[in-house]
Write a structure and sequence with these properties.
single chain, 162 residues, mainly alpha, two-stranded antiparallel ribbon, elongated
């Protein structure tokens, strides 16, 4: 029903609403928690005897690397994570193209910085003229709806989707 993985968004693809992006973000947090929990086991098994002054920062960097690898891989692979697929939204460049490695890496780094700044990068959407998250504005990306592509006009629902 959506546009093909790795393809460009149709011209004029509507941006996903802030409500839909926020709900997707909440689901994403749960999925990321599960991923990081599972990824913790190998590190803990290997580093259990290492001094905690070394192990703790190494563990934190490892978890950031795991999260980064997950997001960059998913965004490059089709512009969607599992949560984004569920909420039928897709990451594209500002021009509507599939995100490249540079866009995906920049988006992750900026999103991480925004999250570490007490969520300021996400709250930015409340004041942005296009309701973009700060990391999307800085990385040159946007999130578009992926629920109406490939449908004929008569198949599209009459009600407004959030």
């Amino acid at each position: 029903m959506g546009f093909a993985a790795g393809s460009d968004a149709p011209p004029g693809a509507p941006s996903a609403s802030l409500v839909r992006r926020t709900l997707s973000l909440g689901y994403e947090a749960l999925l990321l928690l599960a991923l990081l929990f599972a990824a913790s086991l190998p590190f803990v098994m290997i580093a259990h005897a290492v001094d905690s002054l070394v192990a703790r920062p190494a563990f934190q960097l490892y978890l950031v690397a795991v999260a980064g690898a997950y997001f960059v891989w998913q965004w490059r692979r089709g512009g969607q994570t599992l949560a984004m697929k569920t909420w039928r939204i897709r990451l594209v460049t500002r021009e509507g193209a599939a995100p490249g490695l540079r866009h995906a890496l920049a988006r992750f780094v900026f999103a991480l910085a925004g999250a570490l700044a007490a969520g300021a990068g996400f709250l930015w959407a409340l004041v942005d003229r296009e309701s973009l998250f700060l990391h999307d504005r800085l990385a040159g990306t946007k999130i578009v709806r992926d629920d109406l592509w490939g449908m004929r006009d008569e198949e599209k629902p009459n009600q407004k989707l959030t």
